[in-house]
User: Fold this.
Amino acid sequence: MTPIRTLIALAGGAALAVAAPALAHTRLISSNPAANATVKAPAAITLQFSERLVPTFSKFDLSTAHHTVVPVRTAVSADGQQIVGTPTAALAAGEYTVTWTAASVDGHRINGHFNFKVG
Amino acid sequence: MLEAAIVAARLLQYSGAAVLFGTALFCAFALPPRTLLPGARALVASGALVLCLASLGLIAAQASLFAGSFHDGLTREALAAVATEMDLGKAALVRAAVAAVAFVLVLLFASPRKPRWRAVAGLSAVAAASLAWLGHAGASVGPLAPWQLIADVVHVLAACAWIGALPGFLLLARAGSRDHGRRLLHRALAGFAGTGSVLVALLLMTGLANALFLIGPDHLVDVWATDYGRALAAKLVLFAAMLLLAANNRWRLTPALARLPGPAAAGALRRSIALEGLAGIGVLAAVAWLGTLPPPALV
Assistant:
């Protein structure tokens, strides 16, 4: 990117930041495995959020397509923006659903779910 | 059920703060000189107690909401997480502590003199201002966030000053002998007119600023179809009712009391002020509900 373009991008970003509603909106930015992705059995499942979370109230459950709960240990990362879950045993091939719930430091409670496939 | 507990804890905090800060402010500045107001101490002390307990109650209710149930929320871990890691919890803890100090201070009054009321009013201003962190402004980010918080603090303080003055006037209407009480009431009401206008102006300006922040120019039309819009509409209607009653008090009933200081004029004023107070509680209830709804700018 040329310096001029960088400047324009920065100025545009700054203008957006000023014009945007001044409200924090905690949300799930991305996950690994990604939603609807087909992957090899992951050692860890990571959910990346836009704001700092309160560890006590932020976790997720993992279940199979047959609604069987799969044991998983979750923890919030040091920077507070990730929930990392480690399945206690390797995941077998099949569909999985991650059902997450999180509370942000600024007092919002959010939740959601997504699927991925091990194959 | 959990949501209802949170709305209740919020309403109790707003009401407690209005009585603690607003009525103390009334005693410090709006009361005619050398006037003792029987009942003011008990009233302000109860406001402090309600504010203190409701602030602690809010921490418990929020912990239950975040944990999913009262059973999981009323644990040491969940309560500590809200009180030490979340801004609204920290603010509630500060508020509870300040309200507790104000409670003791009010109870220790041997004679309720004005300098002491000023101290109580100053202290409780901190507790009332911290209510801004209970609302959506507390969750703001970005370059405008500090301005939004300042607007919210001014809004909360002005609202508490207005609503909390109403029980002060009602107590004054009963103070002393009947004739004396009516004269005092008239003096205090006439003296409050300027303050009242300033409070209304502040409320309108900061309210408008908050509405712009929380609704956003893009949602001015569609907001009224949402729960947020309905709660806001209820608040605005009740606010308008308060304004009409206040205007009627100021331009009709107060001059009438001066012309003919009899029981009829005083009774009309008392009823009108009580009605204004009820509308004020309605406004606080609408605000308690509003804080739990997502504002359109966030959705």
In short: Residues 178-215 of chain B form the longest helix (38 residues). The interface with chain A takes residues 62, 65-68, 77-78, 81-82, 85-88, 136, 138-145, 148, 213-214, 216, 295, 297-298 of chain B (CB under 8 Å).
